[in-house]
Amino acid sequence: MKLATQLKDNDGKDYELGDNIKCRITGFKGVFIGITQWFNDCTRIGIQSKDLHDKKPIDTQWFDVDDIVLISKSNLRSKGKLEVVTGVGGPKRQDPIRGNNP
Predict the structure, then answer these.
(1) How far apart are CA 21 and CA 32, in angstroms?
(2) How many domains does the chain have?
(3) Are 58 and 31 within 8 A, CB to CB?
(4) pLDDT for residue 3
(5) Is the pLDDT higher at 72 or at 11?
(6) What was the pLDDT predicted at 42?
(7) Beta carbons within 10 angstroms of residue 72's beta carbon
(8) Are 14 and 5 in contact (CB under 8 A)?
(9) Residues paired with residue 35 on neighbouring β-strands, in sequence order
């Protein structure tokens, strides 16, 4: 399976993981960290803020791709600091441990 690391919006603008972007509606800005594609043909992208709230990272927020504006392109990939990792998954299912008594 080929992983999506970049996308093009309906206006033809290109976005790539690591780009600095913001939501034109809410003004939320940060780094483009993920893409989801839904059954109803909705594409949403995840933005991780660089800001902190109470000294903790702000949760990743997801927005429709058409609401996104590019702030600046990333140079992480060209510097070799951004690598797409494949073959990783979530946690494995743990079977319940049962005692000797039924």
Answers:
(1) 6
(2) 1
(3) no
(4) 57
(5) 72
(6) 85
(7) 8
(8) no
(9) 45
pLDDT digits (tens, 9 = 90+) for 15-52: 888 899 999 999 999 999 988 888 888 889 999 999 99
What is the token pair recorded at 93? 């299912």
> Mapping DSSP to helix (H, G, I), strand (E, B) and coil, where does residue 17 land?
coil
Q: Domain with 49 in it: what CATH number?
A: 2.30.30.60
Question: Roughly how many angstroms between the first and final C-alpha of the chain, as a whole number?
Answer: 44
Closest of 74, 6, 57 to residue 35, by C-alpha:
6
| pLDDT value of residue 1 | 42
- Domain of residue 46: give its range: 6-70
Does the pLDDT at position 88 exceed 50?
yes
* 29 touches 20 (CB < 8 A): yes
